[in-house]
Amino acid sequence: MARPSEPSKHLRPLLEKRQQFPQGQPIDAQGNGGPILGIAFLLLILIATGFSREDGCANKVVTDLPASRDIAGAQLHLNKGALRELHWHRVTEWAYVYQGRFRAHTLQGLDDQNEFLLAFDDGDFDATGTTFGVDDWITHTPRSILAKNFGVNESVFDTVPSKEPVISNGTIGSANVDSPNGMLDGNSSYVYKLSQVDVPRAPGGGGTLAKVDSRNFPIATRIAAAIVTLEPKGLRELHWHPNAEEWLYFHKGQARATVFLGGGLARTFDFRAGDTGVFPENSGHYIENISETEQLVWIELYKSDRVADVSLTQWLALTPPDIVASVLKIPRSVVDQLKKEKQVLVTGK
């Protein structure tokens, strides 16, 4: 993973190319402007103890990914002991850890290097009234009120940072806090340990697709996710999502996707590790692993309580075959061979 003192190797080319385009013009994965999707990481904050990269349709970043209305995203990287300041959000926050270990919700790194993807169920994540920092609140409250509220001397707050330290150094303690109201576990747990789940191969045999939504993670009623691994030259079949737009983060490999918006509007994009993208709700699309040797891994996020899709092949297979053959002007024998079960991840041919 990238050192905290420099941008990710996947991030840097996009940041460089982004500067070549005027505001209001999104870019694709090659740095080319385009009206449908913008692919880029948008805001990079570098601090000695770690960094965060924010991505979404927000006041400061709307020119980079304007299609993202439902979801905003960020990456957070922390060194061992480093802390994300104490805070909370107006919106739902969802996280996927892919390196190291963390302690939540203070968000403290427990291993030497720790990184995860964050998502929020509002593309306008930079809007005022979305994120609240404890130190920011304390420094904007009269000292006399603080002293009365906490039952301490006013001088206690002399060293509270006046400028929000998004990430700061810290030490890892061993103390846990017991709540008089009990533990948040079972259906009330805010943690789902996918690393302990044996994910079977997806229909079609081309890889795995692990769904994490309210059906197996009951507390997750606002953001649903799928973590997908696709074998070389494999295909995420042609489909669409009827319940939400799809927000994607490509974690590993190289991909190609064509998005169909209806009315003759479509565009093809190439993605690589570190890219993000948005497929509008109900837009037809596929994702292909264009590598001959490397797996493709990406994360799909939806502002919904569940992951849902409609397979084009299955829809055609469950439509009277004479109608399909007549409309598409293809042989009836071809229609008869279409599979009536979803082929979610198709093996490479």
| Number of helical segments with 4 or more residues | 6
Strand portion = 25-35%
Radius of gyration over alpha carbons? 23 Å
Major sheet attributes: 6 strands, antiparallel
Low-confidence stretches: 1-51, 53-63
Question: What is the strand tally?
Answer: 22
Report mean pLDDT, rounded to a whole number.
Answer: 81
Which secondary structure elements does this structure contain, and how are they paired or packed?
Blueprint lengths: L11 H7 L24 E5 L2 E6 L16 E8 L3 E2 L2 E3 L3 E7 L2 E2 L4 E2 L3 E8 L10 E3 H6 L3 H8 L16 E2 L38 E6 L11 E7 L4 E6 L5 E7 L1 E9 L2 E8 L3 E4 L4 E6 L6 E7 L7 E2 H6 L3 H8 L3 H5 L8 E2 L3
Antiparallel strand pairs: 1-2, 2-3, 3-9, 4-11, 5-10, 6-9, 7-8, 12-13, 13-20, 14-19, 14-21, 14-22, 15-18, 15-20, 16-17, 16-19
